[in-house]
Each structure stands twice: as C-alpha cells, then as structure tokens.
Amino acid sequence: MGKRKVPGLNASSTADISFILLIFFLVTTSMDTNRGLAVRLPNPPEENQQDPPKIRERNSMVVNVNMNNQIMVTVAKDSRTIEVSELRELAKQFIANPENDPDLPELVPVELPAPFGVQNITKNHVISLQTDRATNYDTYFQVENELYGAYNDLRDELAKKTFGRSYNECNEDEQLACRQYYKCVISEAEPRKYNQ
Question: pLDDT by residue (tens digit) across 69-99?
C-alpha cells in the first residue's frame, strides 16, 4: 500500500481572524481612566458680584509650597517651615482652635443641626494653599491630602464623641451635621513662578 498524504490546513485567513479578535477585545474591554481629584470648582463669577469680604489675619492659614518642595505655613504673623508630617496636626489646631487661642481663628456662635444646637466654631477660617509652578506633584498631593485629612480626622473625632461611632458609620444626617460643624474651607491659588 502507498503512503497516505496528510491533508494540510489552509492558514491564509488566520491573520484576518486574529486581527478581528484583537479589534473585538479592544472595543469591548473597559479600561481604567484617571478621574483626577474630587475637588468642587467654584461657580463662575456673577455680573453684579461684590468684592469678597476681608479676612482677618487670625482667620487665615497660608500654606506655601515652593519650587524646592519646602512647605512654609503662616498663621497670623507666625511663619515657619515644616515637614509634611507636621501639617495635619497644625491644621487641626487651626481649624478647631480648642483653647480659644487669640492668634487662631475666632470662635463664633453658630446654629447647627441637631444634636449640636448653638456652638462656638471657627466659622470664618480659611486655609489658603499656594504652590509654585515647579512644585513636585507628589508633594502637592501629600500637602492636599494632609489638609483634607485634618478635616476628616476632626469630623471623625466629633462623630465618635457625639454619636458613639466613626464618621463613616454615621447616617447621612449625622454626617451632614459633622460637616457643618467643621466646614471644609480650602482655597487654592493659581500656581505661579516665584523668584528664588
């Protein structure tokens, strides 16, 4: 008997099929996208807008990050260079002013939602974050994280003291009351080029 020939496979369309599968997976696969920072932008200016109110010096905390990623904090007339790790505690002291320090924001009686009622809080405080155009993004994010973390820590401490549970475990109304007690007021100035 003669040898049988094994039939060959026609592979001429294999490249076409691979290309179609590649296109299919590229179109149907979801890809993670960077969402950026969750920051609420200010409303566009109104036509009849009045000048912003003057901020008393004691109600203002200015955080400058220079091109060398050094952090300088100014509260009232006291300016000093600090490390990122020190910023959260400094901001918490500024925001809460627990001992009614005359160099920190003034405590003002404010009507808050239940269960707080009228409380003396630093209603008029503002934290101003100013950076240089050459500031490292990592440093900027660390500074911003510490400032927002200060508000989160204060709200968490308030929730534990008032409701007996952490801020994240509170219901919506309780969280709203904590947010109004420690209202987040961080102003970010346009980055600029500072001279050395």
Answer: 999 999 988 899 999 999 999 999 999 999 9
The pTM score is: 0.73
Cis amide leading into 115 (omega within 30): yes
Give the 3-state secondary structure of residue 173. helix
d(CA 82, CA 63): 10
Distance of CA 189 to the CA centre of its chain: 14
- Give the number of other Cβ atoms within 10 Å of residue 74's Cβ: 15
Instruction: Evaluate whether 112 touches 175 at the Cβ level (below 8 Å).
Output: no
User: How do the domains of the chain map onto residue ranges?
Assistant: 59-188
CATH class of the region 59-188: alpha beta
End-to-end CA, the chain: 95
What does the block give as tokens for 61? 């905390």
The torsion region of residue 100 among left (phi > 0), alpha (psi -120 to 50) and beta comes to left
CA–CA gap between residue 143 and residue 145 (Å, rounded): 5
pLDDT in tens, 41-71: 666 767 766 666 677 788 899 999 999 999 9
Q: How many CA atoms are closer than 13 Å to the CA of 87, on its beta-carbon side?
A: 29
H-helix segments, the chain: 14-28, 84-96, 137-163, 172-181
